[in-house]
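Lab notebook, bench 4. The sequencing result for the construct came back, and we need a structural model before the next group meeting so we can plan mutations. Quick request posted to the team channel:

Model the 3D structure of this chain.
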Amino acid sequence: MTNITVSASGLSRRYGARIAVHDIGFELRQGEVLGLLGPNGAGKTTTLQMLAGCLAPSSGGIEICGIDLLERPRQAKSLLGYLPETPPLYREMTVDEFLHFAARLHRVAKAAVPAAVDSAKQRCGLTEVGKRLIGSLSKGYQQRVGIAQAIVHNPRVVILDEPTVGLDPIQIREIRKLIRELGGEHSVILSTHILPDVESICDRVQIMSQGKLAFAGGMAELKQAHPQHASLEEVFIHLTQQE
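Done. Here's the predicted structure in token form:
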């Protein structure tokens, strides 16, 4: 079994004459957390939607654990967990009801569903709120439920789109801790425009600007490549304003 869990090459997406993503390529290995960093409108969400199989690329290829996502979508998607920017939650369901529903959608065997749900709840800190309506939970806990539905089937790859947006500082700290823990057992790709998310969570970073890659590499490489800038914020501004 290869330790390369995601491989994307020549990935592009066009909307008429507008190119939202242009010629993106990278590899992700088991146990890595990759940050997709960029300002709003840089193409991060479009890239993640293509990687998750929700949006077909105009050109390029994607493999999930060696399986071609376009040719064998069902097999490839079974290895993925995805949290969109707006979590796909049913507010009128309890946490337990929703996660049982999500597990069945992910084709978890019926007999294995209770254990899968219990495991996801425990990992996401939801054990005490299983009987509560999702609509009654804070935004931070709703985000945890969104992450739980993405991992309930124990996928090899977890894709998180802006997982800390709109959270208060305590909630952000807790979600970052959860993502770091997920990175120990899964490959994780997360998009963000929040620089401290990248510094505290990610092993590697890909900075996007206007649909193109402006940088790809490790955090140490990023800082070494731009010693003239005192902070990640300065590097980010420098890279995303270049044209």
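The longest helix spans residues 169-182.
Will bring this to the meeting.
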